[in-house]
Specification:
With about 160 residues, the protein is an alpha/beta fold. The protein has one domain: Glycogen Phosphorylase B (Rossmann fold, 3-Layer(aba) Sandwich). The protein has helices at about 15-20, 25-30, 70-75, 85-90, 110-120, 130-135, 150-160; strands at about 5, 35-40, 55-60, 75-80, 95-100, 125. A six-stranded parallel beta sheet has the order 3-2-1-4-5-6, sandwiched between helices. Helix 2 (about 25-30) packs parallel to helix 6. The radius of gyration is 15 Å and the shape is globular.
Length: about 160
Amino acid sequence: MKTVFVTVGTTSFDELIESVTCSEAAQALKARGYERLVVQVGRGSLVPAADSCPQLRLEAFRFKDSIAEDIRQADLVISHAGAGSCLETLGAGKPLLVVVNDKLMDNHQLELARQLHRDGHLLYCTCSTLTETLRTMDLSVLLPFEPGQPKKFANFLDRALGFQ
């Protein structure tokens, strides 16, 4: 069963949860052959019910000790732009669509998403463009991210955040 895993990490990002479970986004996922949507809602106030997204088999939870298994089982990961979530997903070799929270001030997450996108490792959008991105995305263009090089990644982060 083709699965999409959505994570907001330890944050609250209700707008992402609402956007990804709306009927238009669910229909776009269904049209691409996805059948199951697993949503990690973090500290958010919105926990979608299983029947709130009839196009897909929906499962929702707040936190787990580890989301590594959810990432491993996913055919697509949709994530907030937190560095930890991005790295864990890219390190697992999974296609990643980052949804940037454009309501954040001083948004370093946007800078990180842009740089990883420029380097070909992920796609990114905002909540307002999520459905259209799901309809038109081409995951085949994504390049693998080589894990296990912390110095290289630290330098990458410094560049992406403007410290170098």
